[in-house]
Recover the amino acids of this structure.
């Protein structure tokens, strides 16, 4: 009797579509906005837990029960109730509207959740940028099976080019003087600046690609690592953009909706690319380059295009990063940044956009949550990554896509 | 005019002469066997035809066009399919994607279409998908479409590789030891498959094989090579009794 009831509930829970969970999350964030402060106050938490209260585990263990209660009241219960009761309704949605509604719900939830706290907002923006970075690194390291260490360098090029453009164009700055263009149109020109930054990054990537793609193996790793270091020292010695002191006064145009839209655009384009036959050449090159070449794949072209596309989106992410911070310096884009993106990639999963999202969200969240550990964080995080590498060498979600990222050109014939 | 005309083909690996003065006129519709002891240069000849190696000397004329110096993907898209001696399937790709990827030269949309998934790209992707399913159906591989090619049993992997070679609608098929490592039953199945493919797709086939049973059964003409040089050329019966072939395989007869 009891058992069958549990089974029934479980099967119904499994059937709840993602949209319903998202709607639940949206309602939960609304509730948090309305009564979050009051609930947190009455539970003795003072302020609302910023990142689901993970930090209390490390800093104030005595508050853990209050934190649990808060999560239960604000998130768990409303999400479950809404998801449970809205599921039948959402199943009736026409499939054409499925993706737009999914994205609207997602953005709505993020907007309200992030709008409650400055710090949350910043973390959200960084997470979105990390997703873009990880997915673009996935193109070369995951899909194409090369080992590129140029993420930091690409990011730097994108960030500096975009920043110089916006500061020169729209800001009264002591380096470039008064704005060259009317500042009022600035936010509308920002996308163009980002795209130019991405294109310049892709062109510098071509310089790396030409010598290194003639051969296979470790060459790309070595050359791309050199690239990151060369870019960093070049910028450190370029007095025009502040040298090692960094470059500042960028307008903070990369707010949450802008970053969200760009991340979405990047994922969409990259996902299209890897789903197309042109992009499928990349896994062909990875698994057996000679076979790919003999099976009519223009491997040279596929390699260069994939690498440049990856560089383009890394550059755009760099530009976004600069306009979230409003200040950049060359040290930000060194080997540590590259390693961070790689960790997200190998934790999340190779050859999968879903994997990149999972890895970026998880690791970035972990890094913020473990901040109270200070330096010990850098022992803790590598240990987690090593654990993943032993348990799941290809990453959490690899060679698979989930949800709206699953693309089938045409359904298989039912039978033959 | 022969479909494939090889004249004077010579290839050196540094100081080693792998192929010397090889010539061959392959008429349309023929099945020709290429035999010879290990290291005789058979696979090298295949690699020269496909453009993986550039010959030191000689001409390879396919369908009236000289192939020497063209990159492999161009050569194969002109109508030459091949399989490999050691299986070379893509490790992480499903059977469906494997067959699909071999359609690479058939698409003619550009990068822009791929990035923004334009109507043009969509249409071509659909056509290719459809053709892939058709091919899978013809060879009875539909049920394995979503399995990774690497996870299939050996005989099926060979089959997938052969289907992959047929995607570009080749006129000439190069089979490099198609029955190596197979059980007797799989061998007979493969022989039937080769005959069936030849009928269905109007193929001309050049086949390397060590198993004499396969060669003698399938081929109308056999070429034997040793140390990169042709030592015999003729019908299966002629080859069987050719003293130079016997010598190459078994050694010289000695008076006792």
């Amino acid at each position: 009797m009891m058992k069958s009831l549990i089974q029934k509930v479980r099967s119904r829970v499994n059937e709840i579509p993602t949209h319903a969970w998202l709607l639940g999350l949206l309602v939960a964030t609304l509730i948090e906005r309305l009564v979050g402060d009051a609930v947190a106050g009455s539970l003795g938490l003072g302020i609302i837990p910023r990142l689901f209260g993970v930090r209390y585990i490390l800093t104030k263990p005595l508050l853990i029960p209050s934190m649990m209660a808060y999560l239960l009241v604000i998130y768990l219960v409303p999400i479950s109730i809404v998801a449970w009761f809205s599921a039948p309704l959402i199943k009736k949605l026409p499939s054409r509207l499925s993706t737009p509604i999914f994205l609207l719900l997602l953005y709505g939830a993020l907007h309200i959740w992030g709008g409650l706290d400055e710090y949350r907002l910043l973390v959200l923006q960084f997470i979105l940028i990390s997703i873009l970075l990880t997915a673009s690194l996935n193109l070369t390291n995951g899909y194409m099976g090369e080992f590129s260490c140029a993420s930091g360098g690409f990011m730097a090029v994108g960030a500096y080019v975009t920043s110089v453009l916006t500061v020169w164009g729209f800001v009264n700055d002591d380096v470039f003087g008064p704005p060259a263009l009317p500042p009022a149109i600035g936010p509308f020109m920002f996308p163009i600046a980002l795209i130019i930054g991405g294109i310049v990054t892709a062109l510098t990537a071509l310089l790396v690609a030409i010598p290194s793609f003639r051969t296979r193996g470790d060459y790309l790793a070595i050359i791309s690592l050199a690239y990151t270091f060369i870019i960093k020292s070049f910028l450190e010695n370029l007095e025009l953009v502040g040298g090692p002191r960094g470059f500042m006064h960028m307008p903070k145009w990369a707010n949450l909706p802008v970053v969200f839209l760009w991340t979405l655009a990047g994922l969409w384009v990259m996902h299209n690319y890897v789903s197309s036959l042109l992009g499928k050449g990349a896994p062909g090159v990875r698994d057996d380059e000679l076979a790919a070449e003999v099976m009519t794949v223009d491997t040279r072209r596929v390699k260069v295009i994939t690498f440049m596309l990856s560089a383009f989106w890394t550059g755009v992410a760099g530009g976004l990063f600069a306009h979230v911070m409003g200040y950049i310096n060359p040290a930000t884009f060194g080997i540590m940044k590259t390693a961070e993106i790689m960790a997200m990639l190998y934790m999340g999963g190779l050859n999968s956009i879903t994997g990149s999202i999972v890895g970026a969200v998880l690791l970035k969240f972990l890094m913020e949550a473990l901040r109270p550990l200070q330096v010990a964080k850098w022992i803790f995080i590598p240990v987690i990554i090593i654990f993943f590498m032993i348990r799941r060498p290809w990453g959490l979600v690899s060679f698979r896509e989930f949800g709206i990222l699953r693309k089938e050109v045409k359904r298989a014939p039912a039978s033959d | 005019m022969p479909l494939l005309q090889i004249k004077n083909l010579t290839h050196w690996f540094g100081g080693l002469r792998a192929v010397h003065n090889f010539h061959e006129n392959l008429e349309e519709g023929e099945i020709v066997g290429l035999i010879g002891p290990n290291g005789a240069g058979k696979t090298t000849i295949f690699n020269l035809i496909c453009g993986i190696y550039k010959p030191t000397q000689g001409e390879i004329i396919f369908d009236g066009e000289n192939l020497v110096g063209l990159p492999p993907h161009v050569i194969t898209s002109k109508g030459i399919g091949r399989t490999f001696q050691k299986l070379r399937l893509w490790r992480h790709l499903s059977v469906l994607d494997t067959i699909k990827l071999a359609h690479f030269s058939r698409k003619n949309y550009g990068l822009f279409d791929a990035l923004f998934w334009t109507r043009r790209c969509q249409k071509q992707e659909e056509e290719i998908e459809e053709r892939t399913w058709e091919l899978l159906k013809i060879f009875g591989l539909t049920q394995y479409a979503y399995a990774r090619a690497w996870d299939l049993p050996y005989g099926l992997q060979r089959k997938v590789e052969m289907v992959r070679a047929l995607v570009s609608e080749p006129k000439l098929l190069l089979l490099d030891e198609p029955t190596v490592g197979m059980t007797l039953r799989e061998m007979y199945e493969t022989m039937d498959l080769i005959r069936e493919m030849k009928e269905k797709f109007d193929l001309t086939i050049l086949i390397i094989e060590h198993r004499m049973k396969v060669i003698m059964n399938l081929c109308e003409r056999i070429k034997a090579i040793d140390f990169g040089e042709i030592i015999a050329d003729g019908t299966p019966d002629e080859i069987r009794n050719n003293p130079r072939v016997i010598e190459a395989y078994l050694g010289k007869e000695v008076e006792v």
